[in-house]
Amino acid sequence: MGLDDSFTSHWRKVWSLRIAPKISLFLWKYQHDILPIQKVLNSRVPLKFSPNCSLCGIEEESRAHLFWNCYLVRKVWIVFLDWWSLNRNVMNGHGDLFLLFRCLKGVALREAWHTSVIALLWTIWLARNERIFSKQDWNEEKLVWLIKIRAFEWLLAAGKMARGLESLWKVNPRGSCLLFNKKHKGRDFIWCNTNFIGYSDGSWKLLPDNSVRCGVGCCITDLEDNLIFIFSSPGKANSPLEAEREALLFLYTQIIQSSQLHGIFTLCTNSKVLEKQFLKARAGYKEEESLNILEDWENLVKDKRFKIQFVFRDKLIGADSLAKDGGKRKKMMQAWC
């Protein structure tokens, strides 16, 4: 495929998104750097317009500044990339729409990511215009909230998201996309004879200063993929395996303490070691002395309502993102939906 064919293919994807024609036109102008921003207006009618950014009022308003380098917009990008669990280095340098689209791959996530990027750019543009014409003040919290709502509503209108996933979407877009796609791709045999499914993950990272960043995350769904519970918290584990166990046991304790949940439960983890330890313990084998045996772990092994199932990370319905997010938190976040 030649360069022109690739370019046409990219635009075909943009036109196919369920967004208003005026937003598609905005994207075309954005990509060609011909939006009526102050720098462009001054090149047409010198001295008739202030060259300064409409949001910060400090630097010249160019495309790069307005959508990337303005101090307010940079704050928005930081929160936005953290929301999508992406490296902040994405912010280094460019505003090319199609390079932005390629920052996240995967069929289950691609359209939601494209839609979210477009929602961010469109929200910044509207905020800029409202600042000029209505003197509206903005902060990053308001803008990020609008971005999340717009992207969700666009995906909902396109049939690419479910209303019941809105709470999860606002904290974990990857998880909501994976849960939506799982619902529309049929059932996996591992859910047989199960009433509820729990997903847990632990995140553990040794930092350059030899400190540890640990987080745990989990969620619970029923067999109709209705989200019941989400959790994200800093962890206390001293190793990756302990982080996985900490997340799994928190999930277990939440279920047994709940008065809402009754039945058979499958707890999913991406740790084959934990699954193996669980199966050996349930079969009557004693744990090695070197393992830290916890009372909750022993109770889980004995509780016949529960089984542990290994799944790959991309099947954890966003528990991995919740765990990584938990490592950055100062206190836990949990919600019954």
Automatic annotation (TrEMBL):
Residues 9-77 form the Reverse transcriptase zinc-binding domain. Gene3D superfamilies: Ribonuclease H-like superfamily/Ribonuclease H. Pfam families: RVT_3, zf-RVT. GO terms for molecular function: nucleic acid binding; RNA-DNA hybrid ribonuclease activity. Residues 201-325 form the RNase H type-1 domain. This is Reverse transcriptase zinc-binding domain-containing protein. The lineage of its organism: Eukaryota, Viridiplantae, Streptophyta, Embryophyta, Tracheophyta.
